[in-house]
Design a protein that fits this description.
Number of helices of chain A: 3
Organism (chain B): Kutzneria viridogrisea
CATH topology of the largest domain in chain B: Beta-Lactamase
Mean pLDDT of chain A: 84
Domain Histidine kinase (chain B): 258-467
Shape of chain A: elongated
Mean pLDDT of chain B: 84
Oligomer: heterodimer
Order of helices and strands of chain A: HEEEHEEHEE
Largest sheet of chain B: 5 strands, antiparallel
Strand order of the largest sheet of chain A: 4-5-6-7
Radius of gyration of chain A: 25 Å
Distance between the termini of chain A: 67 Å
Number of strands of chain A: 7
Strand order of the largest sheet of chain B: 2-1-5-4-3
Protein name (chain A): GerMN domain-containing protein
EC number (chain B): 2.7.13.3
GO molecular function, one term (chain B): protein histidine kinase activity
């Protein structure tokens, strides 16, 4: 009889308060650190190639886009975006779409050049822990139907 | 000890059972609801905390230099908050208060699982949430590899515990509210069960006290109603057989009275003839005289027997009249002894005078019967003690014979009882002691038989002093 009462009391006490637990999984680990930012340029065979720029940190999409617009520097890759004095890119992230406002017109770059911008932006987004099915919208300074297209990177599927 | 604690009354037992059931039910319900509520509360709090931490880390990591230096680690630690430790290989962030709480199990899990892990612990009565997570490097193609940076942080769960305690407290008070209601219900239920039981008990008591008309009207159709019906049937059958028995008894008494009455007339004629026979017996021959004397003796015996039977009938019928007058008990007894010539045979021990209101004739009958028996069946000396107190008078007749055998004692006052079956022809009628007892009772007194310490039979007549009540 005494044991039953003891069990009841223990059971009742167990119902109260915050109970200790074992180690339990609590979801995905945060990510976002990187030794540098990955930019996409074009090689001699007109293929998109990633290039790691060792900046020491991943940085934001706008920084990566600005770096991309400044060009590949001394390497065997080249860019298909016309070089500009202004490299500031405005980035707006909405659910599902990253909007990039580039200081260029559609005539300043080839379709491969647009892919360079899309892949670089999406790469930073994914490396920062974002979803890979994100769409990228590149808006140009002059009105064009190309501005409304939602694009994906052929290298990041 | 515990058996003694258990209440005996039906009402108390019902009450305790009801309250126990209610309290157990309320406690079980409250416990389960409080338990699930507290689990939900803990889970949601934990989720909110981990999401906040992940968000804080994720917001700063793109700006963090990699591989990190001491400054980067401190920056990360500051972003997550106090009670946080950030490690990278041999580097550790400064200021990691309370991080002694982080368990080895958590560290191992962070090292091996490559995902965020949590653990709740209680230290010194305070609940804590431990969160540990590695920070991963995600390649552009989505593959994740550990960066070597690990973040450990500790969050206080005291607020949650207080909320849970509040839940438990309200559950307890709800259960407490149910108790008076349970008591009320238990009292009602006990009343509905106990009322018929009490009525049955009262009826049974009245039946036991002799009121054979007592009945309980059955109510409803439950087991108690069945019991009531059964009790009523029992009372009915007892009453029926009692009536039949009383009628048979009355018939038997009337028969005895009638017989003795019818015998009296021929007997008086017979007595007259026998008396004539007695006067002429002296002139008869020896054989004839002996027969005549036997007839005379037996006729006298028959007369006495009929007289005793008639007296018994009168006493049974309750028609015996008590002629009460104030008499001196000692005087009546002495006169009776003298009249029968027993004064020399009986040792009379009595005070000078005891005045008592009673029927002189009936007292004489009792004393004569007792002393006669003592002289006839016992051995001399026969002793007669009369004593008195404020309320009662005792007349005690003791002989010096062998006393009354044990098996005879309960039957000495039975009618026609013969202690010795071989000795059938005694001069007595066999009704003497029965009549004496009835006479004593008529006076509100009593007559008891027993043996004295000396071995002889002892009869004690007890008479009350104030006869007014009788």
């Amino acid at each position: 009889m005494k044991r039953i009462w003891l069990a009841v009391v223990v059971l009742l006490l167990a119902g109260c308060g915050v109970q200790p637990s074992w180690v339990t999984a609590g979801g995905e680990a945060p990510t976002g650190v990187a030794p540098g930012v990955t930019l996409y340029f074009v090689d001699a065979h007109e293929q998109l190639r990633p290039q790691l720029r060792p900046t020491g940190h991943l940085g934001a999409i706008s920084e990566a886009a600005a770096l991309l617009l400044t060009g590949p520097g001394n390497s065997d890759l080249h860019t298909e975006i016309a070089s500009q004095a202004v490299t500031q890119v405005v980035v707006t992230t909405t659910p599902g779409v990253i909007q990039l406002l580039v200081p260029l017109t559609i005539h300043d770059m080839s379709p491969l050049g647009i892919d360079q911008i899309v892949c670089t932006a999406l790469g930073v987004h994914v490396q920062g822990g974002g979803a890979r099915n994100m769409k990228v919208q590149v808006r140009f300074t002059q009105p064009t139907p190309e501005s409304d297209k939602q694009r994906t990177c052929p290298l990041i599927r | 000890m515990s058996r003694r604690l258990w209440p005996r009354g039906l009402r108390a037992r019902l009450l305790v059972a009801f309250v126990l059931v209610t309290v157990l039910g309320a406690v079980a319900a409250a416990w389960s609801s409080a338990g699930s509520a507290s689990t939900a509360l803990v889970t949601s709090t934990q989720q909110r905390l981990t999401e906040t931490i992940v968000g804080q880390i994720g917001a700063i990591t793109p700006q963090l230099t990699y591989p990190p230096d001491q400054g980067a680690l401190d920056l990360l630690r500051a972003a997550v908050g106090t009670d946080t430790l950030v490690t990278y290989q041999n580097l550790r962030s400064v200021d990691g208060a309370d991080l002694g709480l982080v368990t080895d199990a958590l560290r191992t899990a962070v090292h091996t699982q490559n995902q965020l892990v949590t653990q709740r612990i209680t230290v010194n009565g305070r609940p804590w949430l431990l969160v540990g997570t590695p920070i991963t490097i995600t390649a552009p193609d989505g593959t994740r590899t550990p960066s070597g940076i690990e973040v450990y942080t500790v969050r206080d769960l005291t607020d949650v515990e207080q909320q849970i305690d509040g839940l438990a407290g309200s559950a307890v008070s709800t259960a407490a509210l149910a108790v008076p209601l349970a008591v009320l219900l238990a009292l009602l239920a006990a009343g509905s069960v106990l009322r018929p039981v009490r009525e049955l008990r009262d009826t049974a008591r009245r039946l036991a006290a002799g009121d054979l008309d007592a009945r309980t009207p059955p109510q409803g159709a439950d087991e108690l109603a069945e019991l009531t019906v059964t009790l009523n049937e029992m009372a009915e059958s007892v009453q029926t057989s009692m009536v039949a028995m009383q009628r048979m008894q009355a018939d038997a008494r009337r028969f005895a009275a009638d017989v003795s009455h019818e015998l009296r007339t021929p007997l008086s004629t017979l007595t007259a003839v026998v008396e004539v026979l007695a006067t002429t017996a002296d002139g008869m021959e020896a054989d004839a005289r002996e027969s005549a004397q036997m007839a005379i003796i037996e006729t006298h015996r028959l007369v006495r027997l009929v007289e005793d039977l008639m007296e018994v009938s009168r006493l049974d019928a309750g028609t015996a009249s008590l002629r009460v007058e104030e008499v001196d008990v000692v005087g009546v007894v002495r006169d009776g002894l003298r009249a029968r010539g027993w004064l020399d045979l009986v040792e009379l021990v009595a005070p000078e005078e005891i005045l008592l209101r009673l029927d002189r004739r009936r007292l004489d009958v009792i004393v004569a019967n007792l002393v006669g028996n003592a002289l006839r069946h016992g051995e001399p000396p026969v002793r007669l003690d009369i004593s008195a107190s404020r309320e009662q008078v005792w007349i005690e007749v003791t002989d010096s014979g062998p006393g009354l055998p044990e098996h005879v004692l309960p039957h000495v006052f039975d009618r026609f009882y013969k202690a010795d079956s071989a000795r059938t022809r005694t001069p007595g009628s066999g009704l003497g002691l029965a009549i004496a007892l009835e006479n004593a009772r008529l006076h509100g007194g009593d007559l008891t038989a027993g043996n004295s310490s000396g071995g002889g039979a002892r009869f004690v007549l007890r008479l009350p002093r104030d006869l007014e009540d009788v």
